[in-house]
């Protein structure tokens, strides 16, 4: 598994170099895959679909995917590109399910080093939910988006996201 990750990171680095050319002033993109991590307390997301979206996904055997990105305000690292995130990119978690309902995010981690640079430890999250693209070439869901602060996740209630068809 680590070999695949390294290959993907090398390919990403090559493509990033190609896009930015040889400009030594171009910002670097940092991915927090190594180093000490801080656990994010478990939280749940309730994914609801409109009737039309439920029917289309059920009849096609399509899955639902999601990405949760954690970031915050604080001290950026010099020459580090974090866009479209805030100054301190903490990390992300992904999930995929074929069932509707609640998804528990129980093993998410963020960079300890990045966490130490936050000016407010009540960091931000952004969740994007899309169709799994197993059956369809493109995402067929819309509205699968939520954002907030860490304190919004730590309240023992599922965060609700509703999706419809494009």
What would the keywords be for this entry?
single chain; 166 residues; alpha+beta; Immunoglobulin-like; four-stranded antiparallel beta sheet; 4 helices
Structural topology:
Layout: H1 2-20, E1 28-29, E2 37-39, E3 43-49, H2 51-60, E4 64-72, E5 80-81, E6 88-97, E7 101-105, E8 109-111, H3 112-116, E9 124-131, E10 141-142, E11 145-149, H4 150-153, E12 159-165
Parallel strand pairs: 1-5, 3-12
Antiparallel strand pairs: 2-8, 3-7, 4-6, 4-9, 9-11, 10-12
Q: How many structurally independent domains?
A: 2
Structural class: alpha+beta
Termini separation (Å)?
35 Å
**CATH domain class of the largest domain:** Mainly Beta
- Per CATH, which architecture of the largest domain? Sandwich
The DSSP helix count reads 4
Poorly predicted ranges: 1-32
What is the arithmetic mean of pLDDT? 82
H/E element sequence:
HEEEHEEEEEHEEEHE
As a whole number of angstroms, the C-alpha radius of gyration is 18 Å
Total strands:
12
Helix content: 10-25%
DSSP strand content? 35-45%
Notes on the structure:
- The chain has a four-stranded mixed β-sheet.
- 23% of the residues lie in helices and 38% in strands.
- It has 166 residues and is α+β, with helices and mostly antiparallel strands.
- It folds into two domains: 30 residues; 131 residues, Immunoglobulin-like (Sandwich), CATH 2.60.40.
In short:
By secondary structure, the protein is an alpha+beta fold. The protein is 23% helix and 38% strand. The protein starts with a helix and ends with a strand.
